[in-house]
Amino acid sequence: MRNPYTVLGVSKGASESDVKIAFRTLAKKFHPDTNQDNPKAQQHFTEANQAYEILGDKKKRAQYDRGEIDGDGKERFAGFSQGGGFNPRGQGRPGAQASGFGQNVHGAEDILSELFGSAFGGNRQNGGPPPGFGGQRQRQSVDLDIKLKTRVSVEDLARGKASVKLPDGKQISVSIPPQSEDGQTIRLKGQGKKHPGMKPGDALVTLNFISHPSFSVQGTDLRFQLPLPLKTAVIGGKETVTTVDGKLSLTIPEGTNSGKVFRLKGKGLPKKGGGTGDLLVETVIQLPEEGLDDLKTLFGDTVK
Questions:
Q1: How far does CA 267 lie from the centroid of its chain?
Q2: Is the separation of the CB atoms in 117 and 142 below 8 Å?
Q3: Tens-digit pLDDT profile for residues 90-136
């Protein structure tokens, strides 16, 4: 372990306040969770923690200055002073035992909690070490993600967009991947809860498909039942068809039966890799509300 004064960048005569400020600055600068792209941050952060464990504790700082413990808080070889001189009574010297972690380190713990929240406060109830000490970091999990649900219509699926309302009232647009499924979860990066010193969480949005009064979904195709007047079915004509893009006119040939399916290319839902499904228009012949007696006569069924 390097000289703790050197690690924190303070002189041997530095005050407690100066030591605390130095540690606070380094902890904020090198915390791994805010330096994920810096592989050396963990090393610097751990060294700063170990240095403050010594210099942030009056007893340990005095022991270090007298040469009784080293920069790791471990007992130096019994019987030798810091200058290397023989000390026959050194073995029984008060406080010469290895300091170990988990004792009198709440000062560092409190600073880390202040900087990064309770998630970095270590295990105080069990006397455990603050996070990062000696590789024994005991971070409690802080879930910054939020879980939301949004209702998705067929029209939303067709345009690949839906609207989501965040807990703060903000309304945002969500991209829906092609061929998404009911109950699927979409992750919105950085739209979750925020915490000092940490990256914002994500919003996990579950898609809840709602039924459509006209369309049924079959993969990337849509199916639509077209009420077809008997007259049009017999002699042919034009009928208006509803699509997700609006309305269009469909030509019905004469002699069209119920169950006849017309395929309208590209009027369905987006496909993975590009392209769009089709709209399947199924005819359902409807009898007229008036003139039923005339039809019966036409088909040889005399009205009595």
A1: 34
A2: yes
A3: 444 444 343 343 344 456 666 666 655 544 444 444 444 444 444 33
Q: Which residue, among 73, 53, 56, 42, has the nearest Cα to 137 in the 3D structure? A: 42
Element (H, E) at 280: strand 279-286
CA atoms lying within 13 Å on the CB side of residue 166? 16
Backbone angles phi, psi at 83, to 5 degrees: -85, 0
> Two tokens at 259?
């169950």
From the list 209, 208, 188, 199, the residue with the least C-alpha distance to 146 is 188
Q: 241 with 233: CB under 8 angstroms? A: no
Q: What is the C-alpha to C-alpha distance for residues 245 and 224, in angstroms, rounded to an integer?
A: 14
Would you give the distance in Å from CA 29 to the centre of its chain?
Answer: 25
> What predicted TM-score, i.e. pTM, was given to this entire model?
0.50
Which of 75, 66, 56, 41 has its CA nearest to residue 8? 56
For residue 163, give the 3-state DSSP assignment. strand
